[in-house]
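Interim report, section 4.2 (structural modelling).
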Amino acid sequence: MASLDANLGDRPPELSPYLPADELQSRMEQMKTWLSRQNELSPRPLPPINRFSLVQAQNRRILDAEVDEHQHKIWRTFVGSPKNYSSTPLDKLSPVLISEMLLHKVHKGKFLLCRVVTPMVKMVGVHTVIEDSSGSVLEISIYNFPSTGLGFSCESANALFPVGTIVAIREPTLKLGNRGGQPLIRVDSISDIIFLDQTDPAYSEDRWSFTLPASLSAQSSITCTVEDFKKTGNLHFLRGEWLPAVFAYSKGLRLDKDAFLLRLNRAEAYLRLSYYSAALSDAQTVLSLEFIDSERRWKALTRAGKALYFQGKYAAAKDMFQQCISCKGDRDAKEWVSRIDEREEERLHGRFDWSKIYKQNYESPHILHIADFHGPIEVKALHYRGGGRGVVATADIKVGQLLVVEKPFASVYPSELPENESLLTYNLHTGTVPDSSHTVLITKVIERIWGNPEDHAAVYNLFAGPKCPLLPTKPPKTSSVSRERATEGATPFPFESAVDIDVMHLESILSYNAFCPQEIPEQEERSKKDLPSAFYLFASLFNHSCDSNAEWTCIGDVMVIRAIRPISKGDEIYIAYVPGSRPFLRRRKTLRKHFPREDCPCNLCTEDRADGTANCQQREELVKKMCQTKSIEESRRLLKQIEETYRSSRVLRPEMFKAKQHLAFLIREEFNQNAFRLSGFTLRSRVREAIKLDIDSLESVGIRIGKNRQPVLTQLSSTVSSETLILYFLSIAAGFFGLEDRVLAGGWVKAAESVLKLGLGGDKALFMFLFGNRVEKMGIGEFVYSVLGY
Ligand SMILES: C[S@@+](CC[C@H](N)C(=O)[O-])C[C@H]1O[C@@H](n2cnc3c(N)ncnc32)[C@H](O)[C@@H]1O
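Predicted structure of the assembly:
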């Protein structure tokens, strides 16, 4: 993320989310060019900077922020603007002073040792004033630092960077800021910041030409003892400020690395942050100590067990909890053991209790207790696909077979975002304005990599846009975790990142691989501010087809992929990035970023292209009209016209599904309102007509209907979700039930149950959970239960 740098004479294009889509896209292209030009400006010396006025300006900002605390703030950001990061270790860099630095320059080969002079103020990132040892000052903006972004308070940033904190900034970038065009250091990558040890000679006051006011330097941690840090850490922990707690414990551990209580507490704080490898490493260090008592040992075992469980290392986690049980006969640990057994059933055999998982989703969209699962599939090199890979079947696959269950690497729901702040992001990679949840997702992914550096390679092995080279099917063994936490002499996490984080590359990766784990309602493409965003490492390897052979759905933020057609061994498996039910021209626009040169090559798009743009456009307009009309007669006319936009040879006709469903709906509405006026014969013939339309509509989306007017489920639909199909089937059943044709009604109920099994893996409990209320409302509850034997 980035805020816009001030221009130097040549003005940047004006952007607004309210511009027509094409105009907005073209201005974003201009903005891209403008930003890269800014990046290429010739370096020049810094103007003189007055310490007093810089500090005063920051103090004013702090006051303004306090006054505006409750006002709604909209922060403007850019995804895809140039951002730098360093990949050179600190000990290979040489120091630079502010007076030696140049504006518009990335100081390659250098690091700046600096001290925080004023409290932080929050903008898109956090902003403060720093000084170097000679007393020269500069403003600094730090983006993407965990626990400082959207929804976090300034106090959190000040707890992490209190006045007096000394940091080294690797290969700093000096730019002009957008607020008044002041020169500032801009840090996009958190891995560029290294926090110096408070025992480092740099912390000695005589190293600095300027003495910080006593009232401020008291906030510096130089005089604190291990006990002070423990207390501060515990206080933060009690307030739920996990990262400030981690920092306080870590400072204590810098003074005494054997202070195992701090380490034990830090392990718990790491768990709350989902930094599992860090939590595990702390818990294991405590377990390696011979002298700890059984209570502490039990705590360390529990924390190690949880870290391993959430990393999906179930056997090792079980071992920890079993040791807990022998330690204390612990009931909690027994529950964890049985949870682990359930996870192993899921992971190894794909046996999931779906209704239990759907119920978890009611409590929170972040499903905690579920294992990842892979069916008979593998990632294969497919050089003709962007990124060079795809997922193929390693055995013949049946309709409904479970292929993938995957927890997200990170996910963000709008309900987690603050009400008084939002982000207006321009994604220069895709020319779109993503919702806040997508932008926050980037920060979450950065944090997750920072806290779990072993995942770095898998994330950076994902497709990153049209210029991305062919990628290997497995992430290469990385040397980037080489600056290991435990390496002798290296600054340990969290004071230094174990991996270098290239934010610009990550932004590209997320532009091409983020999912919205919720169905996007029709017509909602331009106002999707309420939609969640999630990122999956494995699901990102599937290629796209609008007429896919597998369906992805989400339960909360857990991705589930199932086959909706029989798939032969060796065949590629596709999912739909954009639903095939969306009209062709809108689909093509949304898919443009994935197919920038030619269109999507799938069957559905090929058929739509063959119908011609004019027909597709007319079809889209007719369907729009159809959805707005309440007149049955007009609806019949429109249905005919929609049909005429298809070539006669076409089988899959998704818009006919919508149109027929709408007409059936209007007919039902009419007879519901006029039932008392219509003769029994007319009523029955209307009901029959509505049912016929419903049944015919299913054939337009690939559901074959047998001679007995029952569906033949040799495949599910690529353009209608299984959940929607079940509802239509049940509504047809209700129609036949109204006609007192219990045989046909029962047949459709059974078919609905089959779709539930194939498309959602469901059983009786799931049927009751998802559709129990709906069949009651349709007035066929008792009938349905008797047919299904519930
Ligand atoms: C999420 S990635 C899919 C995995 C990717 N193929 C890889 O190797 O990492 C999305 C990108 O894959 C490529 N892609 C997806 N579906 C495709 C298709 N049907 N044909 C060709 N390339 C496709 C496009 O470049 C798209 O932007």
